[in-house]
Amino acid sequence: MSEALRPMVKSRLYEQVLERLRAYVSEAGLKAGDKLPAERDLAASLGVSRASVKQAIVVLEVQGLVEARHGGGTYLVRDTLDVEPVDQLVERRKRLPEVLEAREALETKLAELAAERRTETELQDIREALDFMRDEIENGENGVEGDRRFHAAVTAAAHSSLLADFMKTIAGQITESRTESLRQPGRPSRSLAQHTAIYEAIAAADPKKAAAAMRKHVRTVAKVRLLTWVPED
């Protein structure tokens, strides 16, 4: 069958709500920390059910764009609601568990080897990546680039070309998992603390402690709102 004649997909109502909310935030000039109207008011204004509004708010939460406070309303986390298409979220949700399993297997071993094999120069590279991430977070960023540099420095210090090649093959998926994790509320500072523990174990040349610290870190990375989200049909 011709691609042009494939079955048409009806837009989910809550996706339309998402687009209206994005436009509203832009037109109203809302910024991070500002409160959105109550769900009942949004439902009345848009002429939809509260369930559709609630589904839209959940998608925004999953993407780290809003924070829904129990009994206190919904607040913007970013200055805009640049919403990722729901279908892309669904696909990432499907592949994320396997990516995290691979990260735990590979990076735990890499941390162990780094503690055994690192040079002083490589240890300094890890330290500089840690400092870079700290500076990012202190400047109000999520620390994504510092996180990338840190894990790359640990990989280099492990001196395992085969494991490094495995990491390269899933680099794109690792970037997804990193971004997903670091946009969780409070996660950047927690990630920095865990990176510090990994660095200290590598500096102390303690392979078991380095592996345990990395395993704990990657399992924290796996705790993301996306994986608890049940997409609506």
Molecular structure report:
- The structure is a single chain.
- This protein has 233 residues and is mainly α.
- It is built from 10 helices and 2 strands.
- The chain has helices at 13-28, 39-46, 50-62, 86-117, 120-138, 144-158, 161-169, 171-182, 187-203, 207-221; strands at residues 66-69, 73-76.
- The protein has a two-stranded antiparallel ribbon.
- A hairpin with a 3-residue loop joins strand 1 (66-69) and strand 2.
- Helix 4 (86-117) packs parallel to helix 9.
- The chain is elongated.
- It starts with 12 loop residues before the first helix and ends in a 12-residue tail after the last helix.
- The mean pLDDT is 91.
Keywords:
elongated, 10 helices, 233 residues, two-stranded antiparallel sheet, mainly alpha
Q: N-to-C SSE series?
A: HHHEEHHHHHHH
The general outline is elongated
Kindly state the number of beta strands: 2
Low-confidence stretches: none
Helical percentage: 55-70%
Separation, N- and C-terminal Cα atoms: 25 Å
Mean pLDDT: 91
Side-by-side strand order of the widest sheet: 1-2
Radius of gyration: 21 Å
What fraction of the residues are assigned to beta strands by DSSP? under 5%
The number of helical elements comes to 10
Structural class by helix and strand composition: mainly alpha
- Major β-sheet, in short? 2 strands, antiparallel
